[in-house]
Structures are given as C-alpha cells and as structure tokens.
Backbone:
C-alpha cells in the first residue's frame, strides 16, 4: 500500500507564506516523480510543481514560478512545498501525488501519476 498525506494548509492573506508537507508511507520504493497539484472549485486540476525524485530536477508551472519551491527530504520520506507571496488565485485544494512503478516518464504530466493524497485546503484572501 501507498499513502500520501498532505498537511500545512490554511487561510492566509495575500502576500503571505505557507508551507505544505506530504508524508509518504507504504511501498514507495519505486517512486520516480513526486508533485503538487491543485484544483479550485469549478476549475480543472492544474500543476503546481514536480520533482524527479532520482535526479532532484524540478519543474515549476508558470503560475507559481519564482514564488513556490518544491523539495524532498528522503530521510523523512517527505515532500514539501514552500509558498511565498501568495495570491487569491492560489486558493484551492492542494494534492500531493506520486508516480510509482514507472521510469522515464514526463513528470509535469499529471496523467502519469498513479497515487494521490486526500488534499489540503489553501485559502488566500485579498
């Protein structure tokens, strides 16, 4: 089994910061990609940032580039997302996801992910 549990969400004002964490447990040995995705009510799911777990290479989607930082802590088996200069448009349910059992895939493509957490809510007010 594989479990991904997000935490750290909350309500902040525009310009503030928030740090999200994703705790991974279970059979995660074959992880190739880890990423953060989000979804606002009435909108499609969109990418936030992803990381190639083997190389550490990161990819940021345009809307968050320069403001968010994705990182992984292998010792703690945790994925993090540092969010700075938050905007109301960042509001949504943030999901942690993983690609397990595949290699050589394009991590920014959310269709590649086969494991997802329950999500943590982030609300940014003006």
Residues:
């Amino acid at each position: 089994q594989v479990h991904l549990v997000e935490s750290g969400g909350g309500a902040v004002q525009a310009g503030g910061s928030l740090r999200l964490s994703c705790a991974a447990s279970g059979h995660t040995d074959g992880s190739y990609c880890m990423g953060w995705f989000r979804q606002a009510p009435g909108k499609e799911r969109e990418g936030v940032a992803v990381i190639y777990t083997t190389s550490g290479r990161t990819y940021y989607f345009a809307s968050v580039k320069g403001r968010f930082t994705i990182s992984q802590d292998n010792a703690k088996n945790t994925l993090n997302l540092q969010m700075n200069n938050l905007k109301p448009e960042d509001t949504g349910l943030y999901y942690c996801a993983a690609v397990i059992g595949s290699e050589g895939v394009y991590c920014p493509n959310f269709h590649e992910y086969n494991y997802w957490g329950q999500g943590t809510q982030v609300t940014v007010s003006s």
About this structure: The CA atoms of residues 70 and 81 lie 5 Å apart.
